Amino acid sequence: MTQHQPKLDLSPKVSDEIRKTTCYMCACRCGIDVHLKDGKVAYIEGNRDHPVNSGVLCAKGSAGIMQHNAPARLRAPLKRVGPRGSGEFEEISWDEAYDIAVSWLEPIRNTNPEKLAFFTGRDQSQSFTSLWAQAFGTPNYAAHGGFCSVNMATAGIYTMGGSFWEFGQPDWDHTKLFMLFGVAEDHDSNPIKMGLGKLKKRGARVIGVNPIRTGYNAIADDWVGITPGTDGLLILSMIHCLMKAGKIDLTYLAQYTDAPVLLNCDEKSPDFGLFLRDENGKELVIDRVTGKPTAFDQPGVKPDLSATYRNKGITHRPVFHQMAEKYLSDAYTPEAVAERCGIPAARIRAIAAEIARVAFEEAIELDHPWTDFRGETHKTMTGRPVSFHAMRGISAHANGFQTCRALHVLQIILGTVEVPGGFRFKPPYPKPAKVHPKPHVGVNAGAPLNGPHLGFVHGPEDLALKDDGTPARIDKAFTWENPMSSHGLMHMVISNAHAGDPYKIDTLFMYMANMSWNSSMNSGGVMEMLTDTDENGDYVIPRIIYSDAYSSEMVAYADLILPDTTYLERHDCISLLDRPICEADAAADAIRWPVVEPDRNVKGFQSALCDLGARLDLPGFVNEDGSQKYADYADYIVNHQRRPGIGPLAGWRMGPNGLQSGRGGVNEGQLDNYIANGGFFIEHIPAGANYYKPWNRAYQDWAVKLGLYDAPQPYLFNLYVEPMRKFQIAAEGHGERQPPDHLRERIKATMSPLPIWYDADQHGNEGFPVTALTQRPMAMYHSWGGQNAWLRQLHGHNPMYLPSKLMAQHSLTDGDWARITSPHGEITVPVMEMAALNENTIWTWNAIGKRKGTWALEHDAPEATKGFLLNHLIHELLPPKGDGLRWANSDPITGQAAWFDLKVRIEKTTAPAEAKPVYPPVTSPVGTGPKELAWKVGK
Question: For every residue of 425-463, which 3-state class applies, written as one string?
Fold first, then answer.
């Protein structure tokens, strides 16, 4: 008898259509395929043709469908009707919302534009939002970088014209030894995972330096559980070992860095410590052939690392001499730093020896002829196959800028930057610091600001000060307190505005910045500042406009809400003008586009700014007849030109003979071209031009052709950052612009032009012996994931992880509760033991804890009862020193928020009903989500 088998559909139809766009579940900007059924999102997978991820997609990216359908999504513009902080709103129309915003903003612009503070959180349209703020005329604009990783970016650009993460990457195909410093798992995760996979497959060695062994460090061949805040000391000790052993690339240093540049060495000279330059301002070196001082870029010059030069009674010596004197000092021997770093001296020496062995004994040669900027042709490219990567872990300390500089100097002396096997820049980098704009603060009523808000200072003359010497910006960026604060100080905006220091503001306008919760130090204090009233009963910060896609904690503290879309409902531009998706071998950018239309009365924030810009009659946002210039953000992306032929997108521009890349006129079908290509554009660097970028004529010419530069701009890496010496000179009493007396010693001590290390341990930490850290989990990104139905299952709440030693000292076991106290506050939280942890460090995941009434979560959700934030223990100000001054909890050079300098003490306690502190619930403008989030897409 025949057996009848069931008929199974082994290849069911999973979608009617696939639309390709760019993920926004973290900062990787991976390509995604969004599957639609009956016009609705069915599921999301990676785009295999995309240059960033080649089809790889992480838990966050796959869970984007839950982000798109989250019950926490805002549904319409909102006007506050209850007390600020209550969460009580009423829905209004967009026209009413715009009318309210214009009624607040127009009088400010017409009288005193600095009364608007416009700050944006983690978005990828900073070139656009800064343009809007510049047109408004306020000097008070910045994005989230000032409290995230400005030390990393700024140190890299001042030192070598670019940095890690979005600015560059290891040469994954040739690296033989890869060393990570302070890298958590949520940033750039798919490219790093793919790169680590390549290394492991080839048998390359991975060393992880991090107090916490999770993620990438968990698969490292060697884990170095360093004492937090001492990375710079470890790096300088390795520099000491390498220099003492002669394991440095002298040819590389002479040809491509300022090591041979002559310095004024006369302590009595007003130019002491400054470069010797010719009449054209070019740095001078001694040419080994002629023995004479010569501009560094002259054809045929062979810079001498050893020769000195005496001119007009003043002795000039190469930078390399200064380096030798500083770093060969016994202060940097492994024995001298071992106890402080928590790493045995023998291990420091072993790591340095391993780096030297791979760099010099396993050097590689690529058969790629190339011509340098001096006109010399090289038959091959020498590779030193050691590469480094670092992020916020070493950046978020008060000594982070100098630590990041030290790491870049370590790379450079090995000759491992922009060579095969080393660190490689991603276009549009490398760029010397001097080609970036300087910060502008020229305010005129009813007129645009006189230039870009952010940039790179090159001396006291570039500081953002008013005529009376007071700060021109509300965050005090680019002042004597934080001279090189290239990304601003977002963490200080609310505190300074509340204190009226340096002045009061009228309106605080923020986008995607959860400043009343996980994005602020001192969250409880910030909530009080946002609701504080003066003697007349008026709010100290009079008006707050906020835009977000979700019902976050910050929503409750706004007076007017402009609801944003989800990333699948909007246009976005991942631009070469901003934060592109380039790889080391290619320039690339991308878009997002509305793969589905919103089902709510919401609007992409950038499109809302186009509308507001027109209603406020802002230059650049209206036509000559006063009509709105850009209908929405998509219109802006296509039609805006930053300078002739250069727009937000580099692909498919219009040329005299049709479409072309980089430079060109407006192409009305440009977005369609991107959509047809999977949402991205890519153009590869020609063979032979893809290494030695700062000095390679072929690369420089290609970059000009593509519009990255307007002219070739070869330059030297700056082991010695001369602008820092200029600030020291001012602090020593020279020059017209002088720092206040209370900052002179700090400037002299911290702004060394050669990298140094100083202790970031804050005043007032006596009795608080343990360091407390946070990091992002790989499956979360800021606070958004906490309301994602899939990701919540991975991280529904967070314990405090303690090392075995501290668990035993305090008689704690897994599941016990502890009171964690800092000089600022206390929290009561559950604890768990973790052996792979620095013995005097505790840590937890960040942004898991939520406030009741937010994110459409139930009041008894684990995030609101067991989840917690370390933010309650951190303050934006340092403990008082008794001098009456407000000292920011920041790096004194850049203003980077010093999140990771937190010191605490631990006490075992009885388990409370829920984690403390507990704040009363806020009213949710979107209600509470269903107990079970389920739906069916299609039939």
Answer: ECCCCCCCHHHCCCCCCCCCCCCCCCCCCCCCCCCHHHC
In the block, tokens 């019950």 appear at 71
SS3 letters across 562-588: EECCCCCCCCEEECCCCCCCCECCEEE
Which CATH topology does 18-64+569-684 take? Answer: N-terminal domain of TfIIb (2.20.25)
**Percentage of residues in the chain with pLDDT exceeding 90?**
89
DSSP 358: I
Tens-place pLDDT, residues 325-368: 999 999 999 999 999 999 999 999 999 999 999 999 999 999 99
For residues 575-586, give the mean pLDDT. Answer: 92
Residue-wise DSSP of 62-76: HTHHHHHT-TTB--S
**Looking at residue 132, what is its pLDDT?**
98
Pull the structure tokens for residue 936: 């069916």
Q: Confidence band (pLDDT; 50, 70, 90) for 124?
A: low
Q: In this structure, which topology does domain 78-151+434-563 adopt according to CATH?
A: Rossmann fold (3.40.50)
Total residue count of the chain as it appears in this document: 939
Residue 26 has pLDDT above 90, yes or no: no
Q: Supply the DSSP string of 381-396, one letter for each residue.
A: EEE--EEEEE-HHHHS
CB 756 within 8 A of CB 155: no
pLDDT for residue 763: 82
N-to-C CA span, the chain = 36
Q: Tell me, what's the pLDDT at 94?
A: 98
Main-chain dihedrals φ then ψ at residue 89, nearest 5 degrees: -135, 165
Query: 502: cis peptide before it, omega within 30°?
Result: yes
Asked if pLDDT for residue 1 goes beyond 60, the answer is no
Query: Which CATH number describes the domain made up of 168-425?
Result: 3.40.228.10
The Cα–Cα gap between 847 and 863 comes to 9
Mean pLDDT, rounded, for 530-544: 98
With pLDDT > 70 as the criterion, what percentage of the chain qualifies? 99
Neighbouring residues of 907: CB distance < 8 A, sequence distance ≥ 6: 810, 818, 819, 821
Cα 876 to Cα 796: distance, rounded to the nearest angstrom? 28
Asked if residue 188 lies in contact with residue 174, where contact means CB atoms within 8 angstroms, the answer is no
Report helix, strand or coil for 612. Answer: helix
| Res. 525: pLDDT tops 70 | yes
List the structure tokens of 644. Answer: 């002739």
What is the CATH topology of the domain spanning 770-877+902-909? Barwin-like endoglucanases (2.40.40)
The domain spans of the chain are 18-64+569-684, 78-151+434-563, 168-425, 770-877+902-909
Nearest CA-CA partner of 389 in 186, 164, 640: 164
Q: What is the CA radius of gyration of the chain?
A: 28
Q: Residue 838: its pLDDT value, please? A: 97
Angle at the Cα of 402 (from 401 to 408), degrees rounded to 5? 95
Q: Give the Å distances, CA to CA, from 341 to 348, 452, 797.
A: 10, 41, 32
Mean pLDDT of 398-419: 98
What's the token pair of residue 915?
Answer: 């984690």
Cis previous bond, 430, omega within 30: yes
pTM, full prediction: 0.96
> What mean pLDDT do residues 878-902 have?
92
Lowest mean pLDDT among 168-182, 373-387, 764-778: 764-778
Tokens of 748: 């002299």
Short-list 344, 319, 320, 321, CA closest to 334: 344
Question: 409: helix, coil or strand?
Answer: helix
CA 819 from centre of chain:
32
Three-class secondary structure of residue 103 per DSSP: helix
**Max Cα distance, the chain (Å):** 111
Cβ distance 133 to 616 under 8 Å?
A: no
Please give the Cα distance from 183 to 888 (Å, whole number).
Answer: 25
